[in-house]
Design brief:
By secondary structure, this protein is an alpha+beta fold. It contains 6 helices and 14 strands. Strands 4, 5, 6, 7, 8, 9, 10, 11, 12, 13 and 14 form an 11-stranded antiparallel sheet that branches. Strands 1-2-3 form a 3-stranded antiparallel sheet, with helices on one face. The C terminus is likely disordered.
Length: 306
């Protein structure tokens, strides 16, 4: 059996065992951080954070789980991200994760954790990406960097709108002189820094002002790298908020409006019908995008004013 991917259940308790380490399922996330008092404090910090809404939480995830994830980096399939402004590594799309990393992403993609994120940020109906496109495991090695930038607006495969990113750092005994701190910028200057120390989790709300990066090359000793796990959360600009039902084959069981639509479908030449439907769908999409943009602008103005 591949020990990097071995996992077994513990029948005597709600726990899993990964490579000999027992992880109680109720202790994967700090329960105190999920309570109403902590939530209210996190909301306050998120609203007042500068230069854009973000939140730093230390100790959110079980350190034994994070230790196990760090062990799995050495068996990860990487794709290099190299250009004028960056030199770093990311796990491939739809990666074959180790057991600990898979447990981490299963946890943050669970319904209760997503609901907690929605309560924290005010962004409802968050969606996840189990294939971890552009997320997953991230590593920057000696000499690597990532220029100050804003993240992408849309998922590059399915077009979902990027709302936020959650990053957890895995770097024990990290030294300040090594660099690698994530710098948060306005469009012109650095405002704050987040050091990538072990067990620190960073939530960043994506928006027009969310500039960040670690632009200076790493000065780590040989064999040390900057490691993190990252996940993006999305919303759908196409969400209509209602269900669409298949038309009944018997006209007697549908309303007059549906009846009329079905008659029109039967008597209209296919080319004309399809053209009209295509135009109608385009109008719906434009309206949905416009409405979503307005809602996002209202939310961001509310964050900045509080």
């Amino acid at each position: 059996m591949d020990t990097a991917h071995s996992i077994e259940s513990d029948s005597t308790a709600d726990a899993v065992v990964i490579r000999g380490v027992k992880l109680p399922l109720t202790d994967l996330v700090d329960r105190d951080a999920l309570g109403p008092e902590a939530l209210a404090e996190f909301q306050r910090r998120l609203r007042t954070a500068q230069p854009f809404p973000h939140l730093v939480i230390d100790g959110l995830f079980n350190p034994d789980l994070l230790d196990l994830i760090a062990e799995e980096f050495d068996s990860t399939d990487w794709r290099g991200v190299t250009g004028r402004h960056q030199r770093t590594l990311r796990s491939v799309d739809c990666p074959n994760l180790g057991s600990a990393a898979q447990l981490y992403f299963d946890t943050i993609y669970s319904g209760w954790f997503i609901d907690w994120l929605s309560m924290l940020t005010g962004v409802d109906h968050l969606l996840t990406d189990p294939k971890l496109v552009d997320g997953g495991l991230h590593e920057t090695r000696r000499g690597g960097s990532f220029g100050v930038h804003r993240d992408f607006e849309r998922h590059r495969k399915n077009g979902l709108r990027n709302e936020m990113v959650l990053i957890t750092y895995l770097n024990k005994s990290w030294q300040e002189e090594w660099g690698g701190q994530l710098e948060l910028w306005t469009s012109r200057r650095r405002v704050t820094q987040v050091f990538p120390v072990f067990g620190r989790t960073l939530l960043m709300i994506h928006g027009p002002a969310s500039f960040h990066g670690h632009p200076e090359p790493l000065h780590t000793p040989e064999g040390r790298s900057r490691r993190s796990v990252a996940s993006y959360f999305y919303t759908s600009p196409e969400s209509a908020g209602y269900s669409q039902y298949a038309p009944e084959s018997n006209f007697l069981h549908v309303g007059w409006s549906d009846h009329a639509k079905q008659i029109a479908r039967l008597i209209t030449p296919p080319a004309l019908y399809l053209g009209a439907r295509s135009a109608r769908d385009r109008m719906k999409r434009r309206h949905s995008l416009s409405q979503a943009s307005e809602e996002r602008a209202v939310y961001l103005r509310g964050i900045s004013r509080q």
